Automatic annotation (TrEMBL):
Keywords: Methyltransferase, Transferase. One of its GO terms (molecular function) is methyltransferase activity. Residues 47-136 form the Methyltransferase domain. The lineage of its organism: Bacteria, Pseudomonadati, Pseudomonadota, Alphaproteobacteria, Hyphomicrobiales. Pfam families: Methyltransf_25. InterPro entries: Methyltransf_25, SAM-dependent_MTases_sf. This is Malonyl-CoA O-methyltransferase. One of its GO terms (biological process) is methylation.
Amino acid sequence: MAGEQKIVAAFDAAAESYDAWTEVQSAVARALVARAAADFARAPKTVLDIGAGTGHVTGFARANWSQAHIAALDAAPHMLARLKAKFPDVETIQADAAAYSGAARYDLILSSMALHWLADPVAALARWRGLLAPGGELHVAVPVQGSLQEWRSFLHKAGLEDSLWPFPASFPGAELAAFPARFDSALAFARSLKKSGAHTGAPGGRPLPAPALRKALAAHSGPFDVTFQVAFIRLEAASPRPPAR
Ligand SMILES: C[S@@+](CC[C@H](N)C(=O)[O-])C[C@H]1O[C@@H](n2cnc3c(N)ncnc32)[C@H](O)[C@@H]1O
């Protein structure tokens, strides 16, 4: 299975458990929509949520802009089915976010915790920007380098090589914010990766040896804290070229 298909298959398989294990993703989605609402002066007529998953961003967007036509795009069919069950009025688009080029243009495009799963995040941002209507805005939240450092340290201390999917360096002009999350135990954090579908390992990385990991998790007592370092990116629609003379 190709890298992208593996990633999407992992999320798809986690569609039923995703909501219960993604408190921090929900907090990031809320912050993203609050930023977009503070920034975008008018009421958007059309909103697109890219990498929508089960709809954390879509839900906050619906609450903010009840009059808008909202579309949610994701490559994972079961994630979209969960979203549709919660928000039947939302249009769903099953597509690859890295290659999507539909005809519709949107006043507001939002994306949370999805961009880093794409092979070329910078190219994806340019493509998404091209989907904006004139005067439109693209707001993206993406975890960047420094995220989940606590988990990496935990594994290194146990003599294990971490196999986390790599986070990109930050993006020019982005604002950074830390989102801490507390889990009941290191085991609960490890489980959250699986239950949220975010356990696909780095390309070329080796899977963690199960017995050594189990031993390290069992040896850890008390809660386990992790932090997502999240970059908030804001891009405007490109201004139309002046007519050639
Ligand atoms: C961590 S989840 C984030 C979901 C949601 N935005 C949230 O904040 O909870 C990442 C989502 O990106 C989707 N995804 C990953 N790669 C994708 C791709 N190439 N095209 C479309 N969706 C993709 C996954 O299926 C998953 O639903």
